[in-house]
Amino acid sequence: MKKLLIVLSFAISGTALYAQTAEPYEFKEYKRHAATPVKSQDQTGTCWAFSTASFLESEALRLGKGEVNISEMFVVRNIYRLKCENYVRRQGTANLGEGGLAHDLLHAVERFGIVPESVYPGRSNPSKPFNHSSLEKSLKETCGALVQQGKEGKLDPKWMAQIDALLDQEFGPAPAKFSYNGAVFSPLSYRDFLGIKPQDYVTITSFTHHPFWDKFILEIPDNWSNGEFYNLPLDEMMRCATFAIEQGYTLSWDTDVSNAGFSARNGIAIVPEKPWQDKTAAERTNAFNLWEPEQKITQEYRQQLFDTQETMDDHLMHITGTTDEKHVGIYFIVKNSWGEISDYKGYVYTSEAYMRLNTISYTLPKSALPRDVRRRLGLEPGDVNIENNRKADMQLKPTPATDSTPANAKPNASDSAPQMRPSKKTIKGGKPKE
Questions:
Q1: Which domain holds residue 267?
Q2: Which pLDDT tens digit goes with each residue over 158-180?
Q3: Is the N or C terminus of the chain more exposed, i.e. has fewer CB atoms within 10 Å?
């Protein structure tokens, strides 16, 4: 009994001590690269277009082309058309929905080009929010009927005209030529003017069900176009991400946001060490406001949650920099497409643990990868001397075009890069809903 009282006393005092020492998150900005204003995808499932268009807008800034505003809907219209064609030709067995991936936008840019949003707003009334629910329903009904007509041998040779009519009604006809800033462009010539070369970009992931240091087609529903991903060990995937940001690049990021640790409202994404169902009411109230320890994420745990569909491909955003959180180290600065919500005006500060666990993939220029990784993946000729290449990479400095910062960004607050300070143990957590 005496021992029990001592244990209870220690537990109570320990809880009181935790409450007394709990501190808010404290960020010291380290790297923030140039990015265009936050937008909202509204009532659409087109985060893949908004995130990757934002990524290419930062690429244009990095390449010295100035600030541009890419029409996401020009890309979305073209991808919807390709999805419908794919669905009908595959006799209704393919994925047909609003979702997509970064390589879909890059494929559309390569094939169809780029248009400024002022030229192609992609809706009859630009003052109204985007909403593709009716369009999605119409496309599914029309494509379903076309599939049935094909099975019956009654498909009209000009069946794609029905798809085009629905898309023109929603988005408006796609322009073949347009005037912009005193010059006449086609979508392809405007892409070339911006210096965007889709073949210069690659997508990185990390899963154990395929060999590392090779590429494969990731088995997720939104990979309807069978895009290829380069597979790296988890630590290498993280090293490449932080290295790219250090060198002045940004990334288009595919992740899971339907889990316990993501709060767009608070602008924080973490992997709490303490399971959500075990938290007190006070701890739940203070979640995302007061710092708490995080789980240590291993390659095995990451794979386990992917295989059990706890980690799923459900949102894409744009990583624009890193910051140093006082208690744990590196956090990623992530631009969302849900409007300027939270104290961070539409940005989400994302821990390294969250990125290690929930990253489906990220897309970046080949040139943003460390030299040893480029060579091991066959993206650059040369022998692979990992140790020497890493030392050489650390000596690289961004070109003036890549070392860019938006006018409203804070200056770097530290001359040294933030480091990850991992928690000491791994504890699985629950899944709250916001």
A1: 27-395
A2: 999 999 999 999 999 999 999 99
A3: N
